[in-house]
Write a structure and sequence with these properties.
The complex is a heterodimer of chains A (about 475) and B (about 400).
Chain A: H1 4-9, H2 19-48, H3 61-93, H4 100-124, H5 137-161, H6 168-193, H7 196-231, H8 238-251, H9 267-294, H10 305-328, H11 330-336, H12 340-367, E1 373-374, H13 376-409, H14 414-430, H15 432-447, E2 450-451, H16 453-462, H17 467-473
Antiparallel strand pairs in A: 1-2
Helix pairs in contact in A: 2-3, 2-4, 2-14, 2-15, 3-4, 3-5, 3-7, 3-12, 4-5, 5-6, 6-7, 6-8, 7-10, 7-12, 8-9, 9-10, 10-12, 10-13, 12-13, 13-14, 13-15
Chain B: H1 2-42, H2 52-63, H3 78-84, H4 119-127, H5 154-163, H6 168-184, H7 189-196, H8 223-238, E1 262-264, H9 266-275, H10 290-303, H11 314-332, E2 356-358, H12 360-369, H13 385-396
Antiparallel strand pairs in B: 1-2
The chains are: A mainly alpha (about 475), B mainly alpha (about 400).
């Protein structure tokens, strides 16, 4: 066993983890998260008090709505995934990422050429009205550039190691980075060039690829990594992991058209997408079963906050995916589509599944920065506040969606449906209290407390082990 | 063994890329080709492209996130078609760079918005939505205006221009265009049913009609129902006491009617509630139930302050009749039924004095000042004071109310 002091002296005991980049992306992740939440909360308050910001074009609902989702996807999840990758890739491959300098460029580009200017441009009125693609085209160019650089940064360690030894997290990382780079231009550029219904077909693909090829693979990379690393047990079945991985990459892209069911887009494409959506739910059951089986022995609420976040994220993943399969079915889709049900669904995906996974990955990497502060009590609070917030918010929006659907199926005046859901919108806004408090607590949990407390907690919990000891467990042969 | 493994990963990797490419081909490129083919089959010869102003308006619509609350896509579903009109066809979207279909409806779908609302209503609504629609949650866009709803900046005009293109090409194609598309479309019977089977292209219950049936409304004694409906749907323009001074009235031309000054027949009220007043901001209220409409009728009647006319000397009435025949009948009709020979020229129908009786003050004011926003001009240059009051008295005698002619 390596003592903390030894780790401190040689914190980057091979494989070298660039802790400064983990730290920088981690902080940027939570800061952009808090700003994105502020956009969302303000937008939700404006639905209750529409004249709140009066004569200010900068804070009008539409622009806040654009910045909310782009900030969550690129600012929070993007940075959190990068933070995890700077820890995970060296551990998985036993090799350094390509270059610290390159890392600084990626950090600068991602935050100061994409997220911050993207937000400002949207607020100033420069944007595109495409879901998960609201930042203007000039920003998209920088996203693509940053994604290219990220490939250069993170992929060479995998290829120099050889593919046959890759653990499933590595596959998800490679898949996520490569396919995001392929899909991003399709969603952001094609609808500007191909009009109307034809462009919408591509838009639909991207709406699902954003979650399916960027968010989900990287979130799963985190989950598959943290569970064996923190439980000290290999994953239940490497075979199931790989089966899940390939099915996911086969099926996810084929889902897109389910956002436009009953549209003029050819019915055979819609039906194909619905079939793929159904199969995807089956695949997720397989993935989640494997993950939960791997969690055996850790209990429902493990003491390690990283593991607890990741485990709960896994459960949210199961629920949101089955919900997705259900709502893609025509009989359900025809009434809940366009309603708050879908808003609840996307929050369960992004705030439940992805955010819990990303937070778990971030905490896990953070614990292993020897000089980072760490406050376990606050992280506990963050977990419970967030669980409470997500559960209440998603239930509330789901019911609101059913209420709206009921009105829309009747002949009642449109405004009746708006009046009827306002109490639910109030509850949704109130859930911002535990959620925002949870995120602030998460931030405080990572910047208060003593330096090195993270490592000490790990040592107390499961006994400290050098990263070399983790690596073999993250290899297929062990499983 | 390693070699075999490497091969298997290579195969799987290629498979992954293959499925991604397949997704683009199967769900992007191929539907695009099918849509292109359908567009070719069903498109009218020369659909109107957007003008420069309409294009600028579209950019504003896009940047303000309008599409995130208002879809522009009526689905192939009976509930969608019943609420909004014929389902959206592919060719209707050929000028949409990028599409604005939307995936959330907080407000109603706007695919067929073009002719539903008057432009003064649209501008007032953009300026201050809650001044017109109680409980609306739409953001206000006052920065597109110079401090008042009837003083739009260029941006508000552009946005209005764009709104008036929504569904325009489909409406312009007309019944011939529909028949052509229905015959040419190589689509299933189901699709045809939803795309072309709608009895009306635009099903908006707010769409005003100049002519049309209306339900015969029974008298209602449900005061509270009437008050609630009036407060929700009418008071924003007509004011709490019916005096035409609601918060939304300021930007409307013509101004909302002061209901305390007008006496209406039951049929006239029924018609206007059901069909709106074409050419004005008064929408139709076909989305309300008969019970609501009956109750509303009672509320409107209740606003009228009856006036007992002084006995008018026959000579004055005779003068009024002569002036009316010479000056007014051309539009308002010989018998005052609003059906004069020139009536058809106007976007707003001339008042039918047989079913609507203005109070003397309102009548005189209209003659002296005209009615802003309508073809009714001031008559003070043409008529003497005696003639003005004579004709003001006279038009009140034309009213037959609910009695049969």
């Amino acid at each position: 066993m390596v003592s903390i002091d030894a780790m401190r002296e040689n914190p980057a005991s091979p494989p070298a983890v660039e802790t400064s980049l983990v730290y920088a992306h981690g902080l940027a992740a939570i800061v952009t998260l808090l700003i994105s939440v502020a956009f969302g909360v303000l937008a939700s308050i404006e639905l209750l008090v529409p004249d709140l910001v009066g004569n200010s074009p900068w804070l009008t609902w539409g622009r806040l709505r654009y910045d909310h989702t782009q900030g969550i996807m690129l600012g929070w999840l993007g940075n959190a995934f990068f933070a995890f990758l700077y820890h995970g890739v060296p551990v998985l491959t036993g090799r350094r990422v390509t270059s610290v300098k390159l890392g600084q460029w990626i950090f600068g580009l991602w935050n100061f050429a994409v997220v911050v200017p993207g937000w400002i441009l949207v607020l100033a009125g420069f944007s595109q009205p495409l879901e998960w693609a609201e930042f203007p085209l000039v920003i998209d160019a920088f996203v693509v550039l940053a994604l290219l650089l990220a490939l250069l940064q993170f992929l060479p360690p995998f290829f120099s190691r050889g593919l046959e030894d890759l653990y499933v997290s590595s596959w998800y990382i490679i898949g996520g980075l490569v396919f995001t780079l392929l899909a991003y231009p399709m969603g952001n550029f094609v609808p500007e060039l191909v009009p109307g219904a034809r462009g919408a077909a591509f838009s639909g693909l991207w709406i699902h690829d954003a979650i399916g090829l960027f968010v989900t693979p990287l979130a799963l990379a985190v989950i598959y990594f943290v569970i064996p690393a923190a439980t000290r047990r290999p994953i239940f079945s490497h075979f199931l992991s790989m089966l899940g991985f390939w099915l996911l990459f086969f099926l996810y892209p084929l889902n897109g058209t389910h956002h436009y069911v009953f549209s003029v887009i050819p019915m055979s494409a819609q039906i194909g997408a619905i079939a793929a959506s159904t199969l995807l739910g089956v695949d997720v059951i397989l993935v989640v079963a494997n993950l939960l089986l791997s969690l055996r022995g850790a209990g429902w609420f493990p003491r390690d906050p990283a593991l607890r976040f990741v485990g709960t994220g896994t459960v949210f993943y199961l629920i949101v995916s089955i919900q997705g399969s259900v709502q893609a079915q025509m009989a359900v889709n025809q009434s809940v589509h366009f309603s708050d049900w879908v808003v609840g669904h996307s929050h369960l995906a992004m705030l439940g599944f992805a955010t819990f996974a990303a937070a778990g990955g971030l905490i896990h990497a953070w614990q292993r920065i020897p000089w980072a502060r760490y406050n376990a009590v606050l992280l506990d609070w963050a977990y419970w506040l967030l669980v409470a917030g997500v559960v209440v918010m998603v239930s509330d929006l789901t019911i609101a969606g059913l209420v709206e659907a009921g009105f829309w199926q009747s002949t009642a005046p449109w405004m009746d449906s708006v009046r009827a859901v306002r109490p639910y919108w109030l509850v949704r806004t109130l859930t911002a209290v535990p959620i925002a408090a949870g995120f602030i607590t998460l931030l405080l949990g990572l910047v208060t407390g003593n330096r090195g407390d993270g490592l000490r907690a790990v040592q107390q919990e499961v006994g400290l082990e050098p990263v070399e000891a983790i690596a073999p467990r993250l290899a297929p042969e062990v499983a | 063994m390693k070699r075999v493994l490497r091969m298997s990963y290579l195969v799987a990797g290629l498979g992954g890329v293959g499925f991604f490419v397949m997704s683009i081909l199967l769900l992007g490129v191929w539907p695009g080709q099918a849509l292109e083919e359908q567009i070719r089959q069903t498109k009218p010869d020369r659909p109107l492209a957007l003008t420069a102003s309409e294009k600028r308006g579209r950019v504003i619509y896009a940047r303000e996130g309008c599409a995130y609350c208002h879809t522009q896509q009526i689905r192939y579903l009976s509930k969608d078609v019943a609420r909004f009109g014929a389902a959206t066809l592919a060719w209707e979207t050929i000028f949409d760079y990028p599409h604005l279909w939307g995936t959330r409806r907080i407000g109603p779908d706007l695919s067929r918005e073009a002719t539903v609302r008057s432009s003064d209503w649209q501008l007032s609504h953009l300026y201050a939505p809650r001044a017109l629609v109680v409980d609306s949650v739409m953001p206000a866009f006052p920065w597109l205006f110079d401090g008042a709803p009837d003083r739009p900046k260029q941006e508000a005009r552009d946005l209005l221009d764009y709104l008036e293109t929504l569904g325009r090409n489909r409406a312009l194609a007309g019944t011939e265009g529909e028949a052509h598309a229905r015959n040419a479309c190589n689509c299933s019977q189901d699709e045809k049913q939803f795309a072309f089977g709608s009895p009306v292209l635009n099903a908006s219950p707010s769409l005003p009609r100049r002519k049309g049936d209306f339900p015969k409304l029974a008298r209602s004694s449900d005061l509270s129902r009437g008050q609630q409906a009036y407060a929700r749907y009418c008071a924003t323009c007509h004011g709490n006491r019916g005096e035409g001074d609601g918060p939304g009235a300021a930007g409307l031309h013509p101004r909302p009617v002061n209901l305390s000054e007008q006496e209406y027949s039951a049929d006239r009220l029924g018609f206007s509630l059901w069909n709106g007043v074409a050419g004005t901001a008064m929408p139709a209220w076909r989305e309300l139930t008969p019970a609501d409409l009956s109750a509303l009728e009672e509320i409107v009647r209740g606003f009228h302050v009856a006036q007992s006319d002084p006995a008018i000397p026959p000579a004055v009435l005779a003068l009024g009749a002569r002036v009316y025949a010479a000056r007014c009948a051309q539009c308002h009709g010989e018998n005052g039924a609003g059906d004069g020979s020139a009536a058809g020229q106007f976007a707003i129908a001339p008042t039918n004095f047989r079913t609507q009786r203005p109070n003397l003050a309102a009548s005189l004011r209209a003659l002296r000042d005209g009615i802003e926003g309508t073809p009714m001009a001031p008559w003070t240059n043409e008529l003497s004071e005696a003639e003005l009051s004579a004709v003001a008295y006279f038009v009140r005698t034309l009213y037959i109310g609910d009695s049969n002619p």
